[in-house]
Amino acid sequence: MKRVALFALLVTPFAVHAQDTPDLLCRGDVPEWRLEVIGEQAQFIFPARTEMTVRAETRAERADWPRALTLIGDRDTGILIVHQRDCGTAPYEAQMLTQRGQTPILLTGCCETLE
Predict the structure, then answer these.
(1) Distance of CA 105 to the CA centre of its chain
(2) DSSP class of residue 7?
(3) Nearest-angstrom CA–CA distance, 42 and 2
(4) Which residues contact 13 (CB under 8 A, 6 or more apart)?
(5) Do residues 75 and 98 make contact, with C-beta atoms less than 8 angstroms apart?
(6) 13-30 pLDDT, tens digit each
(7) What kind and span of H or E run contains 26?
C-alpha cells in the first residue's frame, strides 16, 4: 500500500489536466508559427509540422494564470506559456519556448479558444 501511495505522489505533478486550459489555437507572425492544442494533443508548425503530446500543465504558484504546457514531439519539444490577458482581438497572450538544433527560440503570439 505504501508503494502505491508513493507512486501516486511521484506522478501527480506530471499529470495532465486537459480540462483546466481550454483548447487553443495560438499563432505568431514574426516569425510565422502556429500551435493547435486540443486536449492532450498538439500540432506545432514552425516551419515544419510536428505532432506533439501535452505531457504536463503547470499553473503559476498561488494563481490561476499564467499556465505552462509542456509539449513533447518526435522532433521538437516546447513549453507554451499562456497568459489570460488581451492580445489584440484574442483573449490570451502566448510565448512558445522551443529550439532549432542547439539554438533556443522564443516565439511570441496570441491564442484564441477553439470551439
Answers:
(1) 15
(2) H
(3) 36
(4) 56
(5) no
(6) 444 444 589 999 999 999
(7) strand 24-28
- pTM of structure: 0.82
- Cα→Cα distances 86→30, 91, 111, Å: 19, 5, 9
Cell of 63: 494563481
- Alpha carbon of residue 35 to chain centroid: 9
The CA distance from 49 to 109, in Å, is: 18
pLDDT at 5 over 50: no
Helices (runs of H) and strands (runs of E) counted in the chain: 1, 8
Tell me which residue has cell 510536428: 50
d(CA 71, CA 40): 9
Question: Counting every residue, how long is the chain?
Answer: 115
Cell numbers of 4, please? 502505491
The residue that leads in pLDDT, 89 or 4, is 89
Residues sharing a CB contact under 8 Å with residue 19, sequence separation 6 or more, in sequence order: none
Residue type, 5: A
